[in-house]
User: Which sequence fits this backbone?
């Protein structure tokens, strides 16, 4: 029987949840960057994204807080083929799906802040530092610089930070 999970319908697969790794977050970030580049969306408009990693056979899903999703987080699954009708999702309740999503939002905020640095050399170094601290390829962040600057120019950092705080107020209340 097909599985409906993270806005997808899966047939002929078994999904086994695993811990989200930095390269999964980098992949999701890269896919979000591509969406921003090819649409008129802004960061706060992205409520879901996914990344398929051929290297480790995983699919990683990001869901923001929205009317449809309602449960923000990042989930990573190893995807195995199986017979039709034998589909299954094996979850691991010990895996925290919220921390990677918060890490992704923190990275976005740090990159937006870094784009306000006036010296291009310092800006690039700051982006490299953010990438290194988070175990992400510097190229992912450096290539995202233009999209972050466009988003920044439409909305000031303080406005963006206020928006994120307001949008996630309920989440922060539950975490407290």
Assistant:
């Amino acid at each position: 029987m097909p599985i409906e999970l993270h806005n997808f319908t899966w047939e002929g697969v078994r999904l086994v949840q695993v811990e989200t790794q930095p390269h999964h977050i980098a992949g999701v970030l890269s896919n979000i960057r591509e969406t921003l580049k090819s649409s008129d969306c802004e960061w706060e408009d992205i409520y879901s994204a996914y990344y398929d990693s051929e290297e480790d056979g995983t699919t990683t899903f990001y869901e923001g807080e929205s009317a449809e999703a309602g449960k923000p987080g990042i989930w990573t699954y190893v995807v195995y083929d199986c017979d039709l009708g034998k589909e299954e999702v094996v979850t691991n309740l010990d895996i925290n799906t919220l921390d990677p999503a918060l890490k992704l939002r923190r990275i976005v905020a740090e990159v937006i802040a870094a784009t306000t640095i006036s010296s291009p050399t310092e800006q690039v170094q700051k982006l490299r530092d953010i990438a290194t601290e988070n175990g992400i390829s510097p190229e992912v962040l450096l290539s995202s610089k233009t999209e972050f600057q466009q988003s920044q120019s439409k909305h000031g950092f303080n406005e963006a930070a206020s928006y994120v705080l307001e949008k996630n107020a309920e989440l922060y209340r539950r975490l407290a």
